[in-house]
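2024-03-11 09:14:02 INFO receiving multi-entity request
2024-03-11 09:14:02 INFO entity count = three
2024-03-11 09:14:03 INFO echoing inputs for audit
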Amino acid sequence: MIKVWIRDLLMGVRFAVTGGRPGWTRTLLTGTGVGLGVAVLLLAASVPSAIHAGDVRDVARQYEYVEDAPATDTSVVVTHVFTEYRGKTVGGMLLQPDGDPDRTVTPPGIDRVPTKGEIYVSPKLKRMLDDGDGKLLAERFENAKVVGTIGPEGLSGPADMRFYLGTDTLTAWKDATRTERFGHNTADNDPLPPSMLVLVVVMVVVLLLPIAVFIATAVRFGSEGRDRRLAALRLVGADSAMTHRMAAGEAVTGATLGLLLGGLFFAVGRVLVEKFEVFGYSVYSVDVVPAGWLAALVLLLVPASAVMVTLLAMRKVAISPLGVAREGTDRGRRLWWRLVVLLLGALSLGFFGPSMRGDSTVNEWGIAGGVLLTLVGVTLLLPWAVERVVGRMRGGPLSWQLATRRLQLNSGLAARAVSGVTVAVAGAVALQMLYSSVELRDRSETGQDPGRATMAASHYDVEAPEALDWFERIRKVEGVTEVNGFLVADLVHERAKPDEDGWRAPHQVRIADCDTLRLLIKTDGCRDGDVFLTSDYEEEEYRPEPKPGARFDLHASEYAEDEQLEPLWWTLPKNIRPATTTESPTGELSGGLYVTTGAIDVKELRSVWLEAMLRTDPADRDTVEHIRNLAPVTDRGFQAYELVSTTNSDEFNGIRNALFIGAVVILLLIGASMIVSTIEQLRERKRQLSVLVAFGTKRSTLGMSVLWQTAIPVVLGLVIATGGGIGLGVLLLRMVDESATDWFAFLPLVGAGLLMIALVTVASLPSLWRMMRPDGLRTE
Amino acid sequence: MTSSTTGGAGALLTATALRKTYGTTSALDGADFSINPGEIVAVMGPSGSGKSTLLHCLAGIVTPDEGTVHYRGHELSAMSDAERSALRRGDFGFVFQFGQLVPELTCVENVALPLRLTGVDRKTAEAKAVEWLARLEVDTVRGKRPGQVSGGQGQRVAIARALVATPRVLFADEPTGALDSLNGERVMELLTEAARETRAAVVLVTHESRVAAYSDREVVVRDGKARDLAGMAGAA
Amino acid sequence: MSISHTLLGLLEAGPRHGYDLKRAFDQRFGQDRPLHYGQVYSTMSRLLKNGLVEVDGIEAGDGPERKRYAITDAGITDVGNWLGTPEKPEPYLQSTLYTKVVLALLTGRDAAELLDTQRAEHLRMMRELTRRKTGGDLADQLICDHALFHLEADLRWLELAAARLDKLAREVGA
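2024-03-11 09:21:47 INFO inference complete, emitting structure
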């Protein structure tokens, strides 16, 4: 019994691997199709492990926090620092050993704590510093000596830009922490916001579903030839169970080749993965390990579904010893159950949607299921639509007639080939719509006005005299044309009531010249010496109202325990002028006291926060880096950034491009399979073609008929996909409480689809010309 | 009807009152047929007369709407698909006009196929296949695929395949239909010679009298009825 | 071709005058060479002598003697035997066979049966030739093949005639 089974399966295997070039091509194509699918599935199955590995390492490099830990020989004073360099975040830690650096604990990835003037950098950062790109960054590190690179165990990924800089300026428990251990689990990951989660879920479904469809299509490559072969075997006495086993053997062979190729593609992809960076995240190849159970699932499900698809497809075909008869061709396809699937999808999206408005929990499975059903429903409409539309086509020019008659003969085949296009395009259209809306919302939130200032720099902890120097130094930076700086000082009102801890709520006072104030408030003119109170000033319980004649202590410090200086009183003038706040070029809107520099003795102020709004030469792209370099990375209070009216949405563009590229890749795959099946069909019709040529049919007519034959189903698929995609997009947007903004998200995809039609036609033309040679009339 | 000489108790395969309709066209309309062991019977008739349908019914490939087919006392329509398939494997052989060979397999593999389906191991099966190819004078093409051989060679391979499992009945439907007359004659000679040696009965469907002349007896199918010509001749 | 059997067959449909017989014969079978009246007369006398026909009556008139002939039971049996016996397969049989078919139709006998019988005989002959050919040398083969091709042509004609029997029956009946 088992022997018989094995024999039949092996016979199927034999058919898959022999049969000359067409046989091999078919199997290889199936294998490649399945392989690509498998590779994507394996990569997807690796995402959890890759993310987990990154998380684990990220946790491992966090320091343990024990309040007021004392210094020991192994302890280190540590703090996080970040800086930006050419649009990328560079993060790291300042380390300051308490004792012998060689005995001090180290974060993972380095074997010794750097001392002042020494730095460990990640390989990516090292490359940058080495090839001169990072010259300005090196300055920010005060040209610290690179004493080593951080090992992978201390990095989240190969593209991690990380450093450990030695220092001796930290004070434990003031501006840094003292620790004796790294690897303490500090924070949980923030859960994704619902709209992002919906996005991710939809993306996974949208990307995996065409893969599934593609695998299913790939498994059926060349099934017509196979059915004929099985009929021949039925004649020699194979019963229908045997033929099913042989078909299964054949399908398993293609799927197994697919698994092998998939493994290969996966291995290649795994190596290449280090080159990619998404949202600043990157992944080590070694971390790309498919989750065991997911990989097992792929390994089992792909061959199993290959067999399933094959056997299901065979159920519609009666393979008798005399030949193959396709069933269900006269019956006509029914619409209702396709609509039921679509409706179920839409309903479940509606059902799982609203619940997430109130609380932020999202039923991912519900949404995924809804998206899946909707997309499958949309795809199921295709065979029905193709049959209906094609069935009604009459007349037209000869090329059109040839194509439509051909399609009428087997509309299912055409629809099957295109169903992947429908799924991919519908999903991508919906995603694009979703993205566009989310993107637009984020964009409107910056509020910055690059028309009034192109850059901003700030320092939140400066002594006042120094602050004025800062403005001077910024003004001197190459590329800076104008500086509007102001100071923010916390002044304590004479009669402010201390709370239980003795802390007295300060008034925030903004100090600047009239030119600068005009960027912040609206007044009826401004002269040096004026003091303004804005209309949106808010009273607070512990804070007396700033009335003319009220006195403020310029020497009061934010830190209560700091050494107390004698109070230095500053009195509000009699004439406090009214003003209204306007949005600053940095998008701020702060009410309170605005004071011209002539009205207060700036030099007597203590710790202030300075902010400078700059105009710069747009041609000089490194200006911002030069400004950042005004302070070393150890000076954590200082930052500079460029102002943009909209978020510089590289990330969104990246995702949008990735999505588009993904959809195009799927279209290309489907295009390739269409080319193969078109050529296969042409080969079968070689004789008829020769006859047509023999009585004078023009090449162009036959070429056009191939074009129509591809174009009609693809165009129908695109129309359905566009409609379905927009519908799904609207449903999803409703779910995240957004309204559609990008109604034309489908245009580039439809364009790609049309390009694919052209490609398939052009690629099949050479074989068409070859088939049309008169020697095709010869029977073999 | 003068069919008393056939259809007796010794008949190998008997069909009675077969009726088969495809859509609205009637292919068989009360046809009777019978063949004895080792006998070669030609089934003749104009195209569309139902001779192929008769062959298909006799072989159990097509189930008649009415009537019965008995093979060695068993009724074919009462058998399961698996049983009928087993019959095709072990007891029946088929040769058609063309296109019955499996294009993926080489000629020798094609011939070995029926043996392998009955569980014979590859080596033995292929050795036997080579023997048969030699017998039909086509052992030179053993390694080629069916697409690479000529029509006459292909038919000989098909005959080798039909006879390799020493069937009791060989069904041949226009076996020379796609061949020129010289090739056709040679194929018929080889076919009948081999069939006689293996004592296989042959149901030979043909519209060519020169092909039918290789038989022992003729049956004419006309308007869905089969007419036995045996016993009609011989007066002159 | 047997003229006496043909005339007998024509009589089976009903008694006729000698002259009528000639006309009927010419009309159906005499396209190439019409029958001489003398031939009818001599054939009829021989048939009378053998008891296969009888004189049904004589009409006096101006012209030649007008005897009306009718077929006897023995005559009917004779026609039946003749029609039922296949001709020895040989070239240029068609005129005889045609005559037989038409007469069978005229006399309400089974023309298909007649054709099948002939066909069986042809096939028997062909089978014999085929057997001789397979065993024989090249000369035998060539000779047999010549005969086979001729027989095949006849057989094709037989098949064609069988296929068109209905049409022929309508024409003959008309």
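2024-03-11 09:21:48 INFO post-check: Strands of chain C lie at 16-17, 53-59, 66-71.
2024-03-11 09:21:48 INFO post-check: The radius of gyration of chain C is 19 Å.
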